[in-house]
Amino acid sequence: MRVLVAMSGGVDSAVAAARTVAAGHDVTGVHLALSKNPQSFRTGARGCCSLEDSHDARRVADRLGIPFYVWDLSDRFKADVVDDFVAEYAAGRTPNPCLRCNEKIKFAAVLERGMALGFDKVVTGHYARLEECDGRFSLYRAADAAKDQSYVLGVLEQAQLAHSLFPLCDVPKSQVRAEAAELGLGVAKKPDSHDICFIPDGDTAGYLSRALGEREGEVVDQDGAVVGSHSGFHQFTVGQRRGLHLGVPAADGQPRFVLEVEPVNNRVVVGPKELLAVDRIEGIRPTWTEARVSGPWRGQAQVRAHGEAMPATITSTDEESLLVELDSPATGIAPGQAVVVYDADRVVGSATISAARSTDRGVA
């Protein structure tokens, strides 16, 4: 089988490539150049896609004896991930760029080009498990719960899963590093990347201010009283506690959190943590890993990459919407995030959160 391995320059994709070679496949490695002006080096565990990462990937490919190429997808990455990220914050929403990158770049652009070049499968170093039955592919959580990445793959559909391989489905990260060391791969001890790859300094608020500019506005409490000011609503997200710089303390002395971002009014609403609690999540643009499940059905919902899987009743009444009713209230759920729904360890589908509500209070 002709297999294309997406090699980031990290240890996970390196071992995924090595395992694919060991399985006897005809393997080619490809590194994705996602920036027009990449950094020369990474800073510890921050960022990725630097020239150093590209060189690390090439050295792994040389060690494994496989062909290696660099594909320039920077224009598409900017349009589908970076520009989308900025536009979502400008609309008062909180996007997940890693999930969008998987959807639009790694499992759309790469698959499209790979299939056009005659490859049968695309391999990545994601921690997730695929099972095939009667020609249908099901996506499951990985064996290593701490590294499970099924959440960020929840946007994938059947046609994409059918051409994907995840060789790290059954191993913990410690074993991956051990395998890399045994093979003499220089990335065996390389730290994992964190944060948003195109914001390597981790200063998301600063990045957004440079992209969107600054405009002063009010910070108000849940009753509409002005308690502070801000230089741009895009610097805040629902559930945020730090960096509010409030001039008026709460009457009860308790900390306050962002309850809502209002781009039209250029206002940020803050209040006590209990007002963040929601038990009804409304989603739009759902995707299904196998086929749409209308429901209502009992499953679990997850709203963060390594968040809790929350018991819920899930309903999809049409092709454009998803309703998740949580058994117990949860906090810090913001429009723009992804909700991924599971049946035990199996991923069923995902949607973009359009609203999060409490059945007692209305919109959160």
UniProtKB/TrEMBL annotation:
Entry's localization field: Cytoplasm
tRNA-specific 2-thiouridylase MnmA-like C-terminal domain boundaries: 283-353
tRNA-specific 2-thiouridylase MnmA-like central domain: residues covered: 207-271
Entries under SUPFAM superfamilies matching the protein: Adenine nucleotide alpha hydrolases-like
GO molecular function terms attached to this record: ATP binding; tRNA binding; tRNA-uridine 2-sulfurtransferase activity
Domain of life, per lineage: Bacteria
Coiled-coil positions: none
Keyword Metal-binding: no
Protein name (database record): tRNA-specific 2-thiouridylase MnmA
Organism name: Luteococcus japonicus LSP_Lj1
